[in-house]
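Q: Could you fold this chain for me?
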Amino acid sequence: ALPPSPAPSPDAADIAWADRPSWLPVLALVLFCFLVRGITAWRTVVVPPDSVHFVNLAREMDPSHPFSARSNQHPLYPWLIRAIAARQDEVKTPALPAPPSSATSPTSPPSATSPTSTSAPSKETRQRYQRVGQVISVLAGTFLALPVYFIALLGWGPRPALWALFCFALLPVAGKYHSQVLSDGLFAFLFLTPLALALWARKKNWLLVPASLLPPLAYFTRPEGLLLVALLPLIIWKLQRPWLLRLLIGFFFLLPLAAGIYYYAAAISSGEDGFVLTRKKSLSQLASPDFTRKQITQACAGPDAPSSGPAGIFPAVDLVATR
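A: Sure. Below is the predicted structure, expressed as structure tokens.
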């Protein structure tokens, strides 16, 4: 008689399944993340002061020259708002030939929809720019769940990665800031995605190509994108490659980021300030007594007083100024 064959381990299938990431729960949690941010944006009644500043900046921006505006904010987020909102304007109101009388009359007033008109924007225009900004933030905050999941998957495995994704979807701060007209969601997505791609490049080398193209976009969104200059070389140095090859990879990997930093810094620099990397106010300037006193004085002067800086530096003071 033949000896009985050993019975298969009952846990073998479970162990194999546990080692593989299940994409159905991941997609469900990403959809849940989108619903949380979308409902938060839909229920928004009062927008933050910085949102008003981004809407005004997007309206005044020239889409063909986004780096020419002297603003304290980096231009990618308001440029996206302007480009999408302007595209909606072209779809809703296509260009029509002007009547002969208005074209020949030298005393005819400018049209309200003319780009050169100095009239205040309508409520519908402001709401359209606000909705576009919220849609961009909601989508960026939703896709931010993917690099969060893949970084956790590489570090701890499938089940902890799912828990990290679930906690991220319910994070109150993320749900609040990723549903408003703020650049936080877009920046976080453009900041974490190249880090996740660079970490996974140890298994898939071709991921270094898209990972090298996103850091300049992160810097064009917020000045904190400069942190990638220090973080990405540390990740590349951990690649299982000869040290000379790692140096070459790091050089070509950081080349787009260095080119983006130089291009933007050269565009915003002037002879008075010299070569600057950002015009956003530093923490030391925000914490200075003189700057705080100037903001309080402006708030007490009323909403019609000339502004000495962008709205939203101190939200409590800005709320007092707009009451």
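A (continued): The mean pLDDT is 75.
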